[in-house]
Amino acid sequence: MPASPEALSVSEVNRRARQTLERDFDELWVEGELSGVSRPSSGHVYFTLKDDRAQLRCALFRNRARFVAAPLRDGDLVRVRGRLSIFEPRGDYQLIVEAVQAAGEGELLLAFERLKAQLAAEGVFANARALPYPPRRLLVLSSPTGAAIRDVLAVLAARWPLVEVTLIPVPVQGREAAPAIIAALGLLNRQSALDPARDAILVTRGGGSLEDLWAFNDEHLARAIQHSRLPVMSAVGHEVDVTLADFAADARAPTPSAAAEQLVPDRRDLTHRLQVLEERVSRAAQARLERESQRLDHLRARLRHPGEALARQRQTLESLSARLDGAMERRLVAQRRHLDQLQRRLAAHPPERGLTEARMRLASARQRLGLAIDHNLARQRERLAAQARELQAVSPLAVLGRGYAILENREGQVIKRARDTRPGEQLNARLGEGRLTVEVTQRKGS
């Protein structure tokens, strides 16, 4: 029988199945009827989503369940967003739920996605300016009676009470909400030119259903936020809620409280940092004082009384003075000895004797030089006369002196043959004495 392939453990099979599901499936929306809703003490919610032909186990964990506003009841028709996975210990195929909506919100979601794609293509969501940190004067567009403004003010007061907050009351739900927020944005931007201290805008409201938040998905509101000269932060709803205002703003926070935390630092953190820095500076100063004190003790140990140093210097000076006197005496003795030697040499060889001999040698040299010059001049005159005679013998002028002539054409070329001339041509004749201009009347010979 052929060898059987290696078998996988059950846990390995479930693990590979879970990895395949999570890798191959993105987040998806599923619509169905709730059944078997269970809420154990852990805070998680477990339920089954079913239709008339199938069912799907679902798990909504506590960190997401707290953002679901409406209670989940058996029989409700809902739309849930999540990702497929497998609970490995039991091998349960399930949907890990991230958000839950009433099923009637489907058309709104389709409209939201279409408008989102259109505005993204137009660059409405391209804002990315940095908000001042912390802002000097914060302008808040929100409902004056909502929980959002209370959360924002509470967090700001606790973290950074120095910021000046101006509430611009606007409706945050219903048909009049978007136009009111757009008008407020326009007014604030016009006033910002007169009041440069206004440097940031926060648009916020608390959570709610998709219909409650729909005013913040208004196309004109998204464009107004994009064109705002003042940087805008949007904090609408809870963490799972996303609106077009969030995409158009320069910054987004998941909740109003989170927006306040992002806008300003925590004074308690700064106080703690200052305390830490103060302690570090204090420790550094103490360590420096200790090092300098130790250095001072070391210098004190090395320090001697000035009298001791002066005594050592005086002793050194006396020693150097004695050495100098001895060296000068020895140098004088050596110089006297050398001078005596020079005087004896001078007496043995007086300069007068050398001068007499030098004068005699100079007179003899002058006599020999005169004779040599006269002899050389005579020899050079004889050579010059001989060369002059030789030159005269071969000079063409000597030939001309005997009655000959040299003919030249107008270009100065010497005429050697009769055929080099033509009848009527004028030639120059160079004689022994002077020149003649002659004309050729007849040419004979070659």
From TrEMBL:
Q: Which UniProt keywords apply?
A: Coiled coil, Cytoplasm, Exonuclease, Hydrolase, Nuclease
Instruction: Name the EC number(s).
Output: 3.1.11.6
GO CC, sorted alphabetically, is: cytoplasm; exodeoxyribonuclease VII complex
GO molecular function terms attached to this record: exodeoxyribonuclease VII activity; nucleic acid binding
Stretches assigned to the Exonuclease VII large subunit C-terminal domain: 127-438
GO biological process, alphabetically ordered: DNA catabolic process
The portions of this protein that span the membrane are none
Where does the UniProt entry say this protein principally localizes? cytoplasm
Top enzyme category? hydrolase
Its recorded reaction(s) are: Exonucleolytic cleavage in either 5'- to 3'- or 3'- to 5'-direction to yield nucleoside 5'-phosphates
Q: Which residues form a coiled coil?
A: 267-330
Q: Where on the tree of life does the source sit, at the highest rank?
A: Bacteria
Location within or outside the cell? Cytoplasm
Q: Which family does it belong to?
A: Belongs to the XseA family.
Q: How does it assemble?
A: Heterooligomer composed of large and small subunits.
The name of this protein is: Exodeoxyribonuclease 7 large subunit
What is the scientific name of the source organism? Billgrantia gudaonensis
